[in-house]
Design brief:
The protein has 159 residues and is α+β, with helices and mostly antiparallel strands. The protein has 4 helices and 9 strands. The protein has a single domain, classed as Nucleoside Triphosphate Pyrophosphohydrolase (Alpha-Beta Complex). Strands 1, 2, 3, 4, 5, 6, 7, 8 and 9 form a 9-stranded mixed beta sheet that branches. The longest helix is centred in the last third of the chain and has 17 residues.
């Protein structure tokens, strides 16, 4: 973990590499209400940054376990959705410092609904229909993009 000052210098000057976790059960996606900036109070996928000297595989499992309390999933349960840029006007450290994430979102279609145990980064979690998120103006455009991507994947899988 970085101290606050060092983290601030990095956010001001470099993109962060992060993972978003897109869990789907019965054509619903798990979204959590954020407690932290950027996007404080909005419904978003769980996720986090990759730490120095941490593989993306370890980061993915760490995030799933620490943020959601889910054990027993492996990297093989997930598919990379591509590489996405996320830009925000503020950051976790300052409302006037923008954040740039190079994001590696991963998708997993779960066979059963998991019991979620939040770690405190989110106020609550809920399952939302993919079509509702895809077309819902109340959801952030990045969430609408994720939901559309997953719906497309599900449609192509069922052909």
């Amino acid at each position: 973990m970085l101290d606050f000052k060092t983290f601030g210098i990095i956010i001001k000057n470099a993109p962060l590499i992060s993972l978003d976790i897109c869990l789907v059960y019965e054509e619903k996606i798990l979204l959590c209400q954020r407690k932290n900036e950027p996007l404080k109070g909005q419904w978003f996928t769980p996720g986090g940054r990759i730490y120095k000297n941490e593989t993306w595989q370890y980061a993915l499992l760490r995030i799933v376990q620490t943020e959601l309390g889910l054990c027993g999933l492996s990297v093989e349960n997930f598919s990379l959705m591509g590489i996405w840029d996320h830009f925000y006007n503020n950051s976790a450290i300052d409302q006037n410092i923008s954040t740039h994430y190079v994001n590696l979102p991963h998708y997993s279609h779960l066979p059963s609904k998991p019991k979620i145990n939040l770690d405190g980064q989110h106020g609550k979690c809920n399952w939302f229909s993919l079509s509702g998120v895809s077309n819902g103006e109340k959801f952030h455009p990045y969430m609408r993009d994720y939901a559309s991507w997953i719906l497309n994947k599900l449609e192509n899988t069922n052909d």
